[in-house]
Amino acid sequence: ETKTTVLKVKTFPCSKYEPIRVTFVNKYGALQDLYFTRKNNESLNIKKEDYKASVVDFANFSYDTASHQTRTLNLVGNESITLNTDYIDESCNEHIRQLMLSEQVWMTRLTDEEKIVPLKVKTQSLQLKKRVNEKLVQYTMGFDVAVDKINTIR
Fold it and tell me: Beta 20-25 vs 31-36: how paired, if at all?
């Protein structure tokens, strides 16, 4: 028996930035990919509520000074990422437009372990660029990760 092995080859120009593939459902209902191969920034926002806890041990009428008196309740962490395209052709403006209007978007980091992460487009307005005006067409877009850092599945 002959065993066949399939190798996936992804070629990108040498870059110090990690390439990220953004997949979205386009206006035809098909999955479409855009590659963001320039600088990307990640950030984390948290929301929480604090409350004062009782640390008194009423059985012994004492308390532990190492116990937390102020505690955290309902801690939620949300990640965001800002991605930049390479210099692209002006004909890609329609793809950028469809990405912004898509309700289903995913990010795949193109490393050895391809982890798919659901996204929401955070950028709400974007001026579509033309080579006549800008010479080089390059876009910066913001996304929110559509999964809480600490899962709060309900």
Answer: antiparallel
Residue 98 main-chain phi, psi, to 5 deg:
-65, -35
Q: Around Cβ 64, how many Cβ atoms within 10 Å? A: 9
Asked if residue 46 lies in contact with residue 72, where contact means CB atoms within 8 angstroms, the answer is no
Per-residue exposure over 2-26, b if at least 16 CB sit within 10 Å of its own CB, e if not: eeeeeeeeeeeeeeeeebbbbbbbb
Beta bridge partners of 32: 24
61-94 pLDDT, tens digit each: 888 878 888 888 888 889 999 999 988 888 888 9
Burial 121-142 (b: 16+ CB within 10 A, else e): beeeebeebeeeeeeebebebb
For the chain, report the end-to-end CA distance as a whole number of angstroms. 50
